[in-house]
Amino acid sequence: MQTKRMTFTGSWLPYALLAPQVIITLIFFIWPSFQALRQSVYRQGDAFGIRPDTFVWFDNFRAIFADPLYLNSLKVTAVFAVGTTLLSMSVALLLAVMVNRMIHSRDSYTTFLVWPYAIAPAIAGVLWWFIFNPSIGIMPYMLDMVGYDWNHRRDSNDAMIMVIIASAWRQISYNFLFFLAGLQSIPHSLIEAAAIDGAGRMKRFWTIVFPLLSPITFFLMVINIVYAMFDTFGVIHATTEGGPAQATNILVYKVYRDGFVNLNFGSSAAQSVVLMAIVIVLTVIQFRYIERRVNY
Amino acid sequence: MVENNRWGNFFAHVVLILGVAIIVFPVYVAIIASTHPPGTFVRGVMPLWPGTHAWENYTTAITEGRSRAGTPPIGGMMWNSFVMAMAITIGKLSISILSAFAIVYFRFPFRIFFFWIIFLTLMLPVEVRIVPTFQVVADFGMLNSFAGLSIPLIASATATFLFRQFFMTVPEELMEAARVDGAGPMKFFKDILLPLSITNIAALFVIMFIYGWNQYLWPLLITTDPDYYTIVMGIQRMVTGGDSEPLWHLVMATVVLAALPPVLVILFMQRLFVKGLTETEK
User: Fold this and answer.
1) Residues on chain B touching A126 (C-beta within 8 angstroms)
2) Which band of pLDDT confidence, cut at 50, 70 and 90, is reported for residue A140?
3) CA distance B78 to B256
4) CATH fold of the domain at A56-295
5) Interface of B with A in 35-54 (CB under 8 A)
6) Which helix or strand (DSSP H or E) is residue A55 part of?
7) Per DSSP, what are the bridge partners of residue A8?
8) Residue B68 in this model has a pLDDT that exceeds 80
9) Residue percentage of chain A with pLDDT more than 70
10) Which among B52, B95, B120, B135 is least surrounded, fewest beta carbons within 10 Å?
11) DSSP assignment of A171-199, as one string?
């Protein structure tokens, strides 16, 4: 790894400079992760120390993968992550393409579109929960007029749609900014050349613009999946609490419930380890992609 | 030249105005709801035009909250959020810039090893190791304290990477000149590197402040004392604390107050925000 050609000398100074960050990382990141790994292969003893923790190999993992509730949670998480990613990315791309056509009003539209990023996922959840409230919400009222009886407290699909909309809404800003930056970096000469050759707007978009955006699209896909899997805890916890009938019980929420409410540490730790594996895979994909783009 | 058709532009404006309307709608509804008396939400459909109770609702929310349901007044929670957000932001910035300085400007044994330890934080978000992290913080006696709310969150690989990236672009000559003039590493850091990094620091400040203010899971885990509740997690207590329907007028006043500081930060520092966002995450 690179440093400057010429470096300072100092035997203890660099360690002192690194110390705060490394110590915090070791205590609050590495050590707990190690504990999670350890707990995932033990069965918790009782609180009085009469029966100590026992080493059970991979029993905890076998147990969670045999548990229909966990398998359901995996499925729910997949649907939720794909739904949130698709919805927020497609809306963001549409808006970015439209804003990119504007000359004078580009900045004002951008201002109106970026601020939801500032709103915490939990608050986004509460906002849409209010709008979809079955008794006084405006959306159920309008859906009722077209004959649909909305109730996210009873209907699993309604609940899933609601948390997807709430999670995607906040993420549109983020995707929009990246798509807009991507669109602005496409050389105008390419578009003009295609126009001279007689390609219409739609054809130009699908054959030139969209392929050139593909690196950014891929990057955003990874980021959005990570967001949907891990940062949306607040959306679920503040609104549906995993219900109705486990329909919105995403993995992160389940780890929290099993660990803190049901106090099932072995299972919760095994689930944590599975999540860690998922994050590590996603991070590696993301970084490999960045390296490739830089070395283009 | 690409054709410039009037109808296409008109269509684009229509799509954008619709888009903006959908984006703004939830917050509009919240602001409207926070201006109505409680009776409005008993039946019928939620109001779409402003009411007359804005002043009462906001003063009740800020000074009383829902004290009976165990939620402290919003004023105190906002203060807690602010302290937590600032502590996280300043903590992250200071430890990251120092470690980036060490990694770029020094050569020493185990440099790569330390770099990897910092890199690992990216792969281990709090969400995947909830219970053991809680246990560590509890063992240190840091539950219900500002130290517990902020310190475990201030290790940041992204900020360190950004500073490292930026330091690599600083011309070598600056450091050579400083050395010729007899400046030590810390003097060089303070008088040359820090002033050069101001824009980067400001951009990261915006991103980190929003990150800190919007923390939810962490305060939820380690605060049981209402004196340390933050506003974003406090809202959850307001909507679920109690058997009846939430008191929507107070909930929505709280939502507006909770969203206001980070939204203002983005609106007033949009350029820095965009810079921070696009540079930290790539």
Assistant:
1) 235-236, 239, 251, 255
2) confident
3) 12
4) MetI-like fold (1.10.3720)
5) 41, 43-46, 48
6) strand A54-55
7) B106
8) no
9) 93
10) B52
11) HHHHHHHHHHHHHHTS-HHHHHHHHHTT-
pLDDT of residue B99: 93
Stretch B250-262: mean pLDDT: 89
Put simply, the chain A residues between 50 and 79 with a CB less than 8 A from any chain B CB are none
Instruction: Kindly state whether B59 is in contact with chain A, defined as any CB-CB distance less than 8 angstroms.
Output: no
Which residues sit opposite B106 in a β-bridge?
Answer: A8
* Cα gap B35→B37, rounded to integer Å: 7
Residue A39 Cα, gap to closest chain B Cα (Å): 9
A109 touching chain B per CB within 8 A: yes
pLDDT at B221 over 60: yes
pLDDT of residue B91: 95
Whether residue B236 lies within 8 A of chain A, CB to CB, comes out as yes
Q: Which residues of A touch B233 (CB under 8 A)?
A: 122
pLDDT over 70 (residue B173): yes
**Residues A9-30: what's their mean pLDDT?**
89
Sorted by where each starts, the structural domains of chain B and their CATH numbers stand as: 74-280 (1.10.3720.10)
Which two tokens mark B248?
A: 């929507």
Residue B27 has its nearest CB partner, among A32, A127, A275, at A127
- The C-alpha of A157 sits at a distance from chain B's nearest C-alpha, in angstroms, of 21
CB contact under 8 A, A15 and B108: yes
Residue B13's closest CA among A90, A93, A180, A101?
A101
Taking Cα atoms as reference points, which of A159, A163, A162, A164 lies closest to residue A245? A159
pLDDT at residue number A295: 36
* Tokens at A144, concatenated: 């009722």
Q: Which two tokens stand for residue A57?
A: 């190999």
Question: Chain A interface, mutation test: which of B124, B156, B238, most A Cβ atoms within 10 Å?
Answer: B124
Q: Residues of A167-189 as b/e, b for ≥16 C-beta within 10 angstroms?
A: bbbbbbbbbbbbbbebbeeeeee
Kindly state whether A28 is in contact with chain B, defined as any CB-CB distance less than 8 angstroms. yes
| Interface ipTM | 0.87
Please name the residue of chain B whose CA is at the shortest distance from the CA of residue A177: B274
The answer for B 99-138 residues in CB contact with A (under 8 A) is 99, 101-108, 111-112, 114-115, 117-118, 120-125, 127-137
Q: Where are the domains of chain A?
A: 56-295
For the stretch B94-128, pLDDT in tens is 999 999 999 998 888 888 899 888 888 888 888 88
pLDDT score, position B1: 44
